[in-house]
Each structure stands twice: as C-alpha cells, then as structure tokens.
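Structure ticket #2291
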Amino acid sequence: MPKYTPFKTVDLTDRRWPGRAIEKAPMWCSVDLRDGNQALAIPMSVAEKCEMFDLLVEIGFKEIEVGFPSASQIDFDFVRKLVDEDRIPDDVYIQVLTQSREHLIRRTFESVRGAKNVIMHFYNSTSVLQREITFGLGREEIKEIAVDGAKLIKELAPTLTGTNVRLEYSPESFSDTETEYALEVCEAVMDVWDPSPENKIILNLPDTVEFIPANKHADQIEWFCRNMRRRELAIISLHTHNDRGTGVAACELGLMAGADRVEGTLFGNGERTGNLDIVTVALNRLADGIDPGLDFSDLPRVRRVFERTTRMSVPPRHPYAGELVFTAFSGSHQDAIKKGMDRRGGEAVDDAPWKVPYLHIDPRDIGRTYESIVRINSQSGKGGVAYVMSREFGFEMPKAMHVEIGAMVNRIADELGRELTTTEIYEAFNREYLQTRDPLDVPEVEFEYVNHDPRTLRCRATVVSEGRQIEVTGEGNGPISAFVHALAEGGVAEIALTDFHEHAIGTGAETEAVAYIQIELPDGTREWGAGVDTNIDLAGTKALVSAYNRSHVGATAGA
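Resolution: structure written out below.
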C-alpha cells in the first residue's frame, strides 16, 4: 500500500544480537510518576503520587522519574514535597525530565535543590518528522539545541550543593531518527558533559512511537553501541512504547543488542498503547532463572495500589498480574496441571526445579495462590474437579472416581451456564456423596470382635430401607466386610465391594477419616460413594451406603 511505507533503519548485515542471551537484569527506572501519570485521564493527586513513590521504593527501584516539574505546578510541588519531607532513601536517585530549553532547565534545577541524588533528564526531538513538520529546523540546528542544553546543565550542576548529579539525554523519537544522526547528537552531548567512569552519562534511546519491528529496533541499538566512541563511559537506556504491540519484545531484543538500562511503567501504562511493561520484563527474567532485582513477591498488592492510584485496571489476561493468567478452565489443561502439582508435592524443597505443565512459573513466587489456578465451568474435566477437591478441601479421590465426579460437576455448570465457585463444587459433592439418605439410611452401627478374635468382626446395625427400619447382623474379616454381610443376611441388599481407598483430613483433634468405596450390584451396576467420620470404620460404612444410594437414585444435584 503506497500510503504506508516502512521506516528505513540501519543496514546491519553482521548483527550479533540474535545469538546472545540476557544473562542479568538491567538497571531499572520507573517512569510511572511522569510518563505514566501524563497518560491518565485524571492525573494522580500528590497523596496518590506519594503512595506510588513509596510502592516503587519498596519494590526496589533505585531510579524513579518523579515528574516534569518545569511543566506542571503539581509536579513541582510533588518533587519539593519529596525533598523537603526527606522521603527519598539515600540510595535512590530521583529523575526529573525537562525539554532542552533554558527557562525549563533552570526551573527544573529549582525543584530538586536539596536532594541527595538527582538524574537530570533532558531531551529534544531529533526525528525526521519532528525536524521537518514540528520545528522546521535542519540537523545542525537540532543538534545545537541538545548541545546548548548540556552546556547549561553542566554550568548549573555545581549550584546544587551536596547533590550527586547524573546526566541523561534522550534524542526523542530515536527509533525514527536516522541512527547515525542520533549517534552524532548523543556524542556531541557526551563531549560537553565529559563523563567519567565514576559518573557515566545515560543515553536514553526512546522508541517514542513504535514505527519499526522489534528486530529492527535491536539492529539500531547494536549499531549505536558498536559505533559510538567511549562506549565504556555511557549507560545505554531503552524506553520502548507499544504501538505495534511489541514493546516488551523490542526491549528484550534491545538488551540482547547491548543496552544496559530500561525505563518503563508498572503494567505498561502510558500514552496511546502504553509504555514498556516493567512487570512483564522483570518477571520474564525470573522465569529464566535470573534475579530481576525487583520484588514482585506480592504482585496482587502492587496491582491493587496501581489500580487505586491511577484509576486504571489490569486486564484479566495481562501477563503475570491478570486475574486469569494462571487459571485453567480446559479439562485437559487441568488434568496436566494436577498431575504436575501432585508430582511436585513429593519434592523435598520448595525451590526444586519447576516442572508443571501449562504454568511457566510458580504462582506463589509472585504472591498468587493455587486457589485460582483451576476453575470449573462446563468445559472443565475430571482432573480440574479433582484438583479443586484436593487443594481446597483435602479430598484425595482415587483416580477411577475422577470421571464420575467430573461429569456430575460439569453437568451442574452446564445447567447454570456459568463457572462454579469452589464452595459450590464442595456443596455438590457433599449433597451427592456425603448426605445421601435414600433409599438406605444407617442411623446406628457398631462393631465388636467375635470371641475376642481380631480376625472376625461382628456388625450390628439399625438400617432404614425404603422406609422400613430393620435390625441386621453380620460377620466378616473387617468392618466393611461385616457390614456387607449384615445387609445381605438381613435381606436389605446384595453388594460386592470392588474398590476401597481411605485417607485422613486435618491434623490432631481435627483429624477426620475419608473413605471412598466402589460397589457392584447383582445387575453389574458399579458406583462410587464417599464417607467422612472421625472413626475410620464408620467412614467406610458411610461410603458404602453412599455408593448404594447413588446406584439407585443417580446424581440428583442441582444448584
């Protein structure tokens, strides 16, 4: 289409970045309080900015862009509040942004007077579109604006007594500036500032509007790093946006291409389609086994503070932080997750290698619980229901029982046309398995050894069968066997036991026994039942009665 033509970038035929890996976390700078705040329909109040600043410090950011104090009185007042109230930790640099214009630079210096550590971040637009359309200036004139700004900042820096001043320069719209020209401007600024190994200059190369693919952006970064003079005296910083939907990819490929530092916002808030999402890039490092240097161990709380202070919402499918990103509704996915979690349950240490299908990190590492990993609707399978019953309520049902209970719960979800809560799942299980009383009920049952012989047990029970109360007695080599014989000898039911499992729920005085029994009737019908009691013998008889009743009346659960 002639209306759109790709921007021509550097010709890098011997690119090296595709063969590289990110082996350590970059330096991080949050721009939530400046770039993110400028993108809000209702900008944050000073109180909300203070809450966000405290959160960013708690997460571990050592560089935080706190505003554009020369452009906004609120930003100016906020910066002064941070300084005057001594709210900035000694190891944190506040970063302030200004255009490369004399009166704005001087106003910016006024805002930070008294701060211990400051990054003076100045910029001017260098792209072809900005030069030709916005300013009507040539390349030399644009470069002169940058050089004049650097000279003034260098002149004013000594007036900030007791302040460590670092310089950051951004050729705005770097990605749609001729790369060799952007390097020319940056090196001219660098020559003025004259950085040292102890006080390097930050050259921030913003992908202000994402005009080009992520791989082309990486080519630009690698070419820039390979061709600049005194590379060892510069920190190359990235500031990607997300207009093409690849802001994270552009950043990560840029790090592979040689960048050292990343600017972005929590959850990618920013103009148009947003800034770089620092949470995603940082937790991608965690997933690669690299310490990200930022603490997102309570990501749900970070999300709550972000949503409260910005009035923005994190989408349910947002990487890592979204409500549903660790949730499986699909039956096959649920079954695989359950098997992975069950196998991991046998690991001796919590930091054992993570190997769970469909979950690329352990949700607990970022403050997510296992409660929401598997959620049940009509698309869910037997493994998902078994997982919920196991993780939420402690019922470790035998595998052969999973199909039966899964079908029961799926039917209920299908009838309701929605997802079921864990409570509703338990209530259905309780109603259909644990509370069955018809056609057979056993109000009383007791066991005793025959002639004190531990090999023979006698069962005496009062049963109600189809409305008739009957006293039955039978003997067997165990409580279930004796109960089955009692029912047969009393003419109540002919039952064959085909499978039996039991386990405990809880600990100490709260421990209960759970029994699962599968029976077969004379006509070949097979059914599972479950029973719970503090006495394991009684749990077994309850499970047998449950199976018998279910074989006669079928599943009747509703909601």
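Closing remark: The chain has three domains: 20-310, 331-434, 440-553.
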